[in-house]
Amino acid sequence: MSDAYLQLDKLTLAYGDTVAVKDLDLSIAKGELVALLGPSGCGKTTTMRAIAGLLNPASGRINLDGAEITRVSANKRAVGLVFQSYALFPHLTVYENVAFGLRLKGLRGQDLNAKVNAGLKSVGLAKFSGRKPGELSGGQQQRVALARSMVMEPKVLLLDEPLSNLDARLRLEMRAELQRVQKATGVTMIFVTHDQAEALALADRIIVMLNGGIEQIGTPEDIYNKPVSSFVADFVGFENIFALKDGKLATPNGPVALSAAAPDGAAG
Fold first, then answer.
1. Does residue 110 sit within a domain?
2. Which of 40, 48, 119, 242 is a good FRET partner for 59, with 20 to 30 A between their CA atoms?
3. Where in the sequence is the domain holding 256, given as residue range(s)?
């Protein structure tokens, strides 16, 4: 896409001799909310780690906001990361957790206080600043982790399976919360998930990955209504998948003509 804010060009990622992602091309626009969706081992978390600066590519380039960041260290590339485990400091208060990165950047006094309080207010935790993480629910802990990343004003915010540790009710609440924060701030957000419903409900676009490559990119509507392969159709929840041959439905009793044209992307 011509208005790419984050661009991955021919990105190859490996662990030793094992290639996890091969020649990946991906463009993400500023302000998009994007899901990296796929089964375990497909390369989605590895791709996220490379964007964050936690894994050096074997080859390829990463560009962000017009600058190449392929070899830029993680702490200098303006990319935030919320871990699946939240990685909160248990001995620090909510306020101190959110302030931690800002203090490392040299912020002090009223400026620090204003940013931390604004961050906590943005996620609805202004009244919890004096509590320790152990005194919070799972959803509240995740919001602390989100605020801690957001106050750093990242160009891109990465979330590693952000809802997987929550119960079903909290997952629904946090879906709405993530969407609200993303729309309110306009931050470019990429989240990794293997939960199809989560990706379909949250994302502007979904990147379906398989075996270290991209199987399909599209809006939730495109992914659900026009899967390009039987894998995508199966992964997003279709149980009845039929093969087409020469535009006809293949059955054990022979081909059956369709009453309407097959949808775009139907496998032949």
1. yes
2. 40
3. 238-268
- 91: in domain: yes
Is pLDDT at 268 greater than 50 in this prediction? no
Same domain, 27 and 84: yes
pLDDT band at 257 (very low <50, low <70, confident <90, very high): confident
Structure token pair of residue 89:
């400091």
Q: Answer yes or no: do 220 and 257 share one domain.
A: no
Q: Judge whether 233 lies within some domain.
A: no
Question: pLDDT per residue over 169-228, tens digit each?
Answer: 888 888 888 898 899 889 999 999 999 999 999 999 999 999 999 999 999 999 999 999
Domain count, the chain: 2
Strand order of the sheet with strand 18-29? Answer: 18-29, 4-15, 59-64, 67-68
Q: 145 vs 63, 124, 150, CA distance in Å? A: 26, 13, 9
20's enclosing H/E stretch is strand 18-29
Q: Which of 21-25, 77-81, 209-213, 248-252 has the lowest mean pLDDT?
A: 248-252
Report, in this order, helix, strand and coil percent for the chain, each rounded to 5: 35, 25, 40
Question: Could you tell me if 267 and 217 lie in one domain?
Answer: no
Contact (Cβ atoms closer than 8 angstroms) between residue 114 and residue 107: no
92 Cβ contact partners less than 8 Å away, ≥ 6 residues apart: 100, 132, 133
What pLDDT sits at residue 236? 87
Based on DSSP, count helices (H) and strands (E) in the chain, helices before strands: 8, 12
Do 147 and 203 fall into the same domain? yes
Question: Nearest-CA neighbor of 188 among 205, 165, 173, 168?
Answer: 205
Q: What is the torsion angle, in degrees rounded to the nearest 10, for the CA atoms of residue 101, residue 105, residue 106 and residue 112? A: -50
**CA contacts within 13 A on the Cβ side of 201:** 16
